[in-house]
Write a structure and sequence with these properties.
The chain has 274 residues and is mostly helical. It has helices at residues 15-25, 45-59, 72-79, 92-95, 104-110, 112-125, 129-140, 173-183, 193-211, 218-227, 239-267, and strands spanning 9-10, 34-38, 86-90, 152-153, 157-158, 272-273. The protein has eleven helices and six strands.
C-alpha cells in the first residue's frame, strides 16, 4: 500500500518529520525506481534525501556519508549499492514565475515558503510584506534571473548591460556585497527569493535611518531604492522615476488589501504535497 497518493498531504514542516518520512519511504523501494522531488529551493528536498540515503546505509551496514547538496548522486556511485535509486532534485519551482503576479494571495498560495520568507523579513526589518512584493514586481517581475536588457550599438548590435543588477531584487553587485558584509549572510544569492526579501528589508531599513523615510512609505522608499541614498534628493527632476514610484505605491496598496483577505489562510500551518 502506498504511503501517499497524488492528492495526499504530508506534514514535513520540521526536520524531525522529514526524517520520519524518509525512514518510512525507504521501506517501499525495492531497487531500480526513479524518484522525483519537486519544489523550490529551501523546502527540504536535500534534507529528505540525506535521511533517506542514510537510512538505507544503516540498514545495509554501510558507512553513513554526509549529504550536503544535490551532488549526492556522485556519492551514491562511490557506495557501490547493489541497486540503483535515482533521485533527481528539480528546482524549477524556484525558477518559474508565479502564474498571477498581480495578486499577492495567489503568489503565496503557489509559493507558500515565499510567504514565510517575506514574513521573516518583515519581522526582522519592519518592512511590510506588501512593499517587498511591490518592489520585486517592479524590479524583476519575479524573474529570478532577471537582468537589465543589453544596450545596442547602432540600434542593432548587442552591447554591455547598463548595470550589474540581477535577480529578484535587481540589486547591483556593490550594494549586494555591502548587504552581505553588514548582515553576515555571506552565502546570500540574488537569485534566491529568501535572500532577496531579506535584502529589501535591510535596504529599506537603512533608508529609514539615512533619509528618515518610513518603511511603509512605498513611494519614497522605492525612489530611494531605485536612485540610491545619495541621489534621492534629485528625484523630483526625473519624471520616469516618479512614474515608477507611483506604480509601486499603487501595487503596494493592492497587495496590502489582498493580503488582508487571505491573511488567515496564509497564517495557518501548511502541509507539503508529496
Amino acid at each position: 500500500m502506498p504511503i501517499a497518493i497524488k492528492d495526499s498531504k504530508i506534514d514535513i514542516t520540521t526536520e524531525k518529520l522529514t526524517k520520519e518520512l524518509a525512514k518510512e519511504f525507504s521501506k517501499y523501494l525495492k531497487g531500480g525506481e526513479f524518484v522525483f522531488l519537486y519544489g523550490e529551493m529551501g523546502v527540504g528536498k536535500t534534507t529528505f534525501v540525506k535521511y533517506f540515503i542514510n537510512e538505507y546505509q544503516k540498514k545495509n551496514n554501510l558507512t553513513q556519508t554526509e549529504i550536503t547538496s544535490p551532488t549526492f548522486l556522485k556519492k551514491m556511485k562511490i557506495l557501490k549499492l547493489n541497486f540503483l535509486i535515482l533521485i533527481i532534485l528539480f528546482i524549477s519551482a524556484c525558477s518559474s514565475v508565479p502564474k498571477n503576479t498581480a495578486n499577492s494571495c495567489s503568489i503565496f498560495e503557489e509559493r507558500y515558503f515565499w510567504y514565510k520568507h517575506a514574513k521573516k523579513s518583515e519581522k526582522k526589518w519592519g518592512t511590510p510584506v506588501y512593499l517587498q512584493l511591490a518592489i520585486i514586481k517592479m524590479e524583476s517581475s519575479f524573474d529570478w534571473l532577471a537582468k537589465p536588457p543589453r544596450q545596442k550599438l547602432f540600434k542593432v548590435i548587442p552591447y554591455k548591460r547598463p548595470s550589474s543588477s540581477f535577480g529578484y531584487s535587481q540589486a547591483v553587485k556593490g550594494t549586494w556585497k555591502q548587504y552581505k558584509n553588514e548582515t553576515g549572510n555571506k552565502y546570500a544569492a540574488r537569485s534566491r527569493f529568501k535572500d532577496s526579501v531579506d535584502f529589501i528589508g535591510w535596504y529599506t531599513n537603512k533608508t529609514e535611518k539615512i533619509l528618515k523615510i518610513s518603511r511603509s512609505d512605498a513611494f519614497n522608499q522605492y525612489v530611494a531604492y531605485h536612485e540610491g541614498w545619495g541621489n534621492y534628493k534629485n528625484y523630483k527632476k526625473n519624471k520616469k522615476v516618479i512614474n515608477l514610484a507611483k506604480r509601486v505605491e499603487k501595487q503596494s496598496n493592492i497587495y496590502k488589501q489582498q493580503l488582508l483577505e487571505c491573511k488567515n489562510s496564509l497564517s495557518t500551518s501548511k502541509y507539503i504535497i508529496f
